[in-house]
């Protein structure tokens, strides 16, 4: 089938690569407002042609919307207006409640699927696209009952062709969980990077000592500020709750270290080790 991808960055580009390889897409159309991204996507073979929004939505069987969440709010109504009669629009933003509220009154709301493929890297742009980014990862479909069965079935087929696990949540539940497992981890990484950069001003050798542990922890700080600013804005309420809890735990570590009570820090770390059971599964 014909697939149009609006937003030719990491997610859109990686999805294009795998949908071409697995044969799900017979033709791939690309839309991006950045001329440089258009050229890169064509030269890398991510899409067969670059087109405009109207042509893409009016031609494609499935339109994948993989743009920053702030742009979603403006693009979803436009894409639904332009969508061909039996077309399906799948948005893949990292937040859902604000997007759901924006789309709910549209006459073609049932042609829209709210989804979040839980995959990514710290890189952006067409050159960041990689093969098998989604393999074994979770694809969350939100507010399933608001979409027509055909639209849900097409979304399920697409995600399963990428060997993803399909889960279902409502938008509010999604944003609460995403704040814990994704959004706050990026804040943690940004803060660690700022802390080390501040210290590095007086100790130039600090990065010479940095090893794998530091690199893996701070990796997310290389992520797009524009993208994450929008995510934080749309999920601010949940993030405040998570950050309050996070700071409470951080202060516990600080207090016990200040007191020299390293048996307590050991207990906290031992408790934290229970995360192995979740991540190993």
Task: Describe the fold and architecture.
The chain has 281 residues and is an alpha/beta fold. The protein has two domains: 2-170, 3-Layer(aba) Sandwich (Rossmann fold), CATH 3.40.50.720; 174-280, 6-phosphogluconate dehydrogenase C-terminal like domain (6-phosphogluconate dehydrogenase C-terminal fold), CATH 1.10.3660. 55% of the residues lie in helices and 13% in strands. The chain has helices at residues 10-21, 35-43, 53-59, 69-82, 97-103, 149-161, 171-200, 206-209, 212-218, 225-234, 236-259, 262-272, 275-280, and strands at 2-6, 27-31, 49-50, 62-65, 88-91, 112-117, 138-142, 165-169. The protein has an eight-stranded mixed beta sheet with strand order 3-2-1-4-5-6-7-8, with helices on both faces. Helix 4 (69-82) runs parallel beside helix 5 (97-103), helix 7 packs across helix 11 and helix 11 (236-259) runs antiparallel to helix 12. The protein starts with a strand and ends with a helix. The model has no long low-confidence stretch (mean pLDDT 92).
Topology of this structure?
Elements: E1 2-6, H1 10-21, E2 27-31, H2 35-43, E3 49-50, H3 53-59, E4 62-65, H4 69-82, E5 88-91, H5 97-103, E6 112-117, E7 138-142, H6 149-161, E8 165-169, H7 171-200, H8 206-209, H9 212-218, H10 225-234, H11 236-259, H12 262-272, H13 275-280
Parallel strand pairs: 1-2, 1-4, 2-3, 4-5, 5-6, 7-8
Antiparallel strand pairs: 6-7
Helix pairs in contact: 4-5, 7-11, 11-12
């Amino acid at each position: 089938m014909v697939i149009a991808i609006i937003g030719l960055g990491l997610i859109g580009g990686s999805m294009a690569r795998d949908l071409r390889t697995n044969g799900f897409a017979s033709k791939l159309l690309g839309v991006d407002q950045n001329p440089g991204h258009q050229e890169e996507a064509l030269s890398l073979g991510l899409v067969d042609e670059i087109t405009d929004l109207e042509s893409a939505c009016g031609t494609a069987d499935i339109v994948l919307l993989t743009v920053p969440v702030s742009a979603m709010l403006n693009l979803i109504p436009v894409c639904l207006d332009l969508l061909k009669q039996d077309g399906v629009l799948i948005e893949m933003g990292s937040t859902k409640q604000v997007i759901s509220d924006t789309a709910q009154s549209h006459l073609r709301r049932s042609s829209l699927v709210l989804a979040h493929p839980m995959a990514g890297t710290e890189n952006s742009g067409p050159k960041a696209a990689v093969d098998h980014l989604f393999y074994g990862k979770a694809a969350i479909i939100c507010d399933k009952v608001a979409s027509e069965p055909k639209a849900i079935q097409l979304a399920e087929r697409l995600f399963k062709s990428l060997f993803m696990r399909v889960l279902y949540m409502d938008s509010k539940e999604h944003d609460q969980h995403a704040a814990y497992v994704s959004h706050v981890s990026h804040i943690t990484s940004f803060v660690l990077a700022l802390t080390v950069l501040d210290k590095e001003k007086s100790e130039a050798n600090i990065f010479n000592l940095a090893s794998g542990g530091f690199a893996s922890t701070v990796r997310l700080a290389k992520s797009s500020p524009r993208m994450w600013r929008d995510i934080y804005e749309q999920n601010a309420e949940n993030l405040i709750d998570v950050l309050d809890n996070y700071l409470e735990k951080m202060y516990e570590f600080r207090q016990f270290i200040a007191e020299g009570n390293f048996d307590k820090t050991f207990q906290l770390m031992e408790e934290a080790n229970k995360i192995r059971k979740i991540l190993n599964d």
